[in-house]
Amino acid sequence: MRRLLTAVLMCSLFCLSFAGIALYETADLTANNVFTEGIEGPAVDLDGALYAVNFKEEGTIGRVNSDGNAELFVRLPQGSVGNGIRFRPDGTMIVADYKGHNLLSVDMKSRAVSIWVHEPRMNQPNDLAITKEGIVFASDPNWMNSTGNLWKISQNGKVELVESGMGTTNGIEVSPDGDFLYVNESVQRKIWRYELGIDKDPKYKKLIAEFSDHGLDGMRCDPAGNLYVARYGKGTIVKLDPNGKLLREITLKGKRPTNLTFSKDGKTVYVTMQDRGSIEMFRVE
Question: What pTM does this model have?
């Protein structure tokens, strides 16, 4: 009951902060330079609270309230720097530690940080996606060589290389119904869709979208299954249908969006901005 009341309160407060703002109209949630240029991995927990990596300094995670005020939530182990964040079905936070070749686990009550998975074969785990069952997929770019890998991590932490020799893998997402996995390649500007069967092994890879300019970064699906993609360098978020058809392009204030996430009710999008060290936001249907 306490968690339910907290979630309702958080949702109400965030919704109130949007009073009078039109759909797809960008606004600031935080001030500039509250986070470093490494701001990434926005994610909302089971209670609706918002988190992002690299609050004030590298190797931290900040929590942001409905007024846009951020505070230090946790400091990662020495030498670790986070990128993508996702929450497991039990509420545990999973963080891609690209410097340590780890996936870190954060207990939300004690704030204790531990290594859930260490995989030295990874270039640098970047963005994460997670199924309702708790299976994690990780993109793994090699920026110097413009290549990348795709990894699957089971609920018990078993690591499996799904595909190697891809382009610069970055944004990654599982569709709300769990039927598809989307992976983009930043440098090649391509978005791929895999089908996920009962075993959640990605199969039947298909190119659904390709762009002629600027980069691609983080991605998220809305509750209807539409895909929102950060266009790094262009300063926009594109909204695509599940087959890659362009539905809308939302202009941001900054030019370097790194990732995005949806509020608990699915009606607000939060975007982390590298060039501003801040979080922007806009409402959706």
Answer: 0.92
